[in-house]
Design brief:
three-stranded antiparallel beta sheet
C-alpha cells in the first residue's frame, strides 16, 4: 500500500495519504483555474480516513458553480493549497495533485467542465465528466507538444 505526501511550497503544511486514491480528475472551472494559477486543476481524491493533515492550515470557503461548498485548506505562510473538501461529498478529501512529488500517481479518469471551459489547445484524453457515475481511461496531453513516456 503506497504512502504519498503532498506539501505546500514551504513544506509547513502537508497531507500524508495511505493507499490508492478513489478518483483522480482534472477540472476546468474558473474557480479551480484561479486556485491553481493554471489552465486546469489536477485533483486526487481519497477517503478521509486515508489522509492525515500535518501543520497549520487556514481555510477559504467558496460556492461552486453548481452550488456546492468547497473548503480549501492552504498554508498561512506560503499560501499554497494542499487539500480541499466538498461539504456535499462527506468523507472525501481532495488533494492538489501538483502538491505531490510523486510521478506514480494514476492518470485522471474524469475531466470536469471539459467541453465548456477548457482552452481550445487542451486535449483531455479521458471522458468528459457527465455525472458521478462517469469514468474514463487515459491522461492529459497538450496539442502540438511531444508526448512523454508515462511510468
Amino acid at each position: 500500500m503506497p504512502t504519498r505526501r503532498a506539501e505546500c511550497a514551504c513544506g509547513q503544511l502537508a497531507a500524508v495519504c495511505e493507499g490508492e486514491p478513489t478518483r483522480v480528475s482534472v477540472c476546468h472551472c474558473f474557480a479551480c483555474k484561479r486556485r491553481t494559477g493554471s489552465a486546469f486543476s489536477f485533483n486526487v481524491r481519497y477517503v478521509e480516513a486515508q489522509v492525515a493533515v500535518e501543520g497549520e492550515a487556514r481555510t477559504f470557503t467558496r460556492i461552486g458553480d453548481e452550488g456546492g461548498h468547497i473548503i480549501s485548506s492552504f498554508c498561512p505562510n506560503c499560501g499554497a493549497t494542499v487539500c480541499y473538501r466538498i461539504v456535499e461529498d462527506p468523507g472525501i478529501v481532495a488533494i492538489a495533485g501538483g502538491a505531490f512529488a510523486d510521478l506514480s500517481l494514476p492518470p485522471p479518469t474524469r475531466s470536469v467542465y471539459d467541453s465548456s471551459r477548457s482552452y481550445a489547445w487542451m486535449d483531455i484524453r479521458t471522458k468528459p465528466w457527465s455525472g458521478w457515475a462517469s469514468g474514463g481511461t487515459a491522461a492529459v496531453s497538450v496539442h502540438g507538444w511531444p508526448g512523454r513516456a508515462r511510468p
